[in-house]
């Protein structure tokens, strides 16, 4: 159970890191395109565009490393602490990226505000270059992926905490009879198991594995077929006596045939 849940958490985190990587890659590609156009055509662009490209570039490197190292260091307290700090830092960074590309929130019609300045949407940067309307739509794409990156960086920071707690719980319990000597932790009672009543002394005293009790001598029934049955004898001072008959004592010899049996209190016999 523990191994399956750990694998599921890693798969979810891998998916989240993949979305973050794609978001950063889209922002990096579009602003690299903007900088390439400005460099080739000697167009001045604001400094914040270079900051956006730097943030998205570092985000690509970080998320790519996260994808590669997730199977090795997922859940380690030190690695997860660094990842949480960086996730929170990228949340703030992409809030800045979204604010810088707020011009893409418009309908990209009429007058548009782009990285190349404010111009009519129908105008173009030059021959063979995109129009301002197209550049505005590129800003809209960067704004969208920035919002997505903010949400997924927030989720990944929370999931890092879950991975650390899962790893600690798995190492605390370890292999044992509760988990069939496999990795992970054994099953525990559910929420309603806390409210189960305690067993009474009668229920606890019953052992389902106990053998049936053997018959004791005082539980033997009297026999009507033989005089040698233990349950049919009564013990006295001079030996033992059968019901309605005089028995022979243990200390004297038995009378022979033809002798009259007479029993005295001292244990002797006469004809």
TrEMBL record:
TM ranges: 21-39, 51-71, 78-97, 141-163
Compositionally biased intervals (Polar residues): 248-263
Entry keyword set: Membrane, Transmembrane, Transmembrane helix
Coiled coil: none
Segments of this protein annotated with the region Disordered: 172-271
The protein, known as: MARVEL domain-containing protein
Native source species: Xylaria hypoxylon
């Amino acid at each position: 159970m523990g191994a399956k849940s750990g694998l599921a958490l890693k798969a979810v985190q891998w998916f989240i890191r993949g979305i973050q990587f794609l978001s950063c890659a889209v922002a990096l590609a579009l602003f690299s395109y903007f900088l390439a156009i400005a460099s080739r055509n000697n167009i001045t662009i604001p400094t914040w565009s270079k900051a956006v490209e730097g943030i998205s570039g570092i985000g690509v490197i970080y998320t790519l490393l996260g994808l590669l190292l997730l199977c090795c260091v997922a859940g380690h307290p030190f690695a997860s602490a660094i990842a949480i700090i960086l996730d929170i830092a990228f949340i703030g960074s992409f809030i800045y990226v979204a604010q810088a590309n707020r011009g893409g929130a418009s309908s990209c019609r009429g007058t548009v505000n782009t990285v190349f300045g404010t111009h009519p949407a129908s105008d173009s940067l030059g021959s063979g270059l995109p129009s301002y309307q197209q550049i505005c739509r590129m800003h809209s794409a960067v704004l969208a992926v920035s919002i997505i990156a903010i949400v997924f960086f927030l989720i990944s920071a929370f999931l890092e905490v879950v991975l650390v707690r899962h790893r600690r719980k798995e190492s605390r319990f370890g292999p044992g009879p509760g988990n069939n000597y496999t990795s992970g932790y054994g099953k525990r009672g559910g929420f309603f198991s806390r409210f189960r009543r305690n067993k009474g002394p009668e229920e606890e005293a019953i052992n389902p594995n106990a053998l049936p009790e053997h018959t004791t001598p005082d539980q033997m029934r009297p026999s009507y077929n033989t005089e040698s049955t233990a349950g049919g004898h009564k013990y006295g001072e001079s030996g033992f006596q059968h019901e309605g008959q005089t028995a022979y004592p243990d200390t004297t010899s038995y009378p022979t045939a033809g002798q009259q049996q007479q029993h005295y209190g001292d244990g002797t016999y006469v004809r």
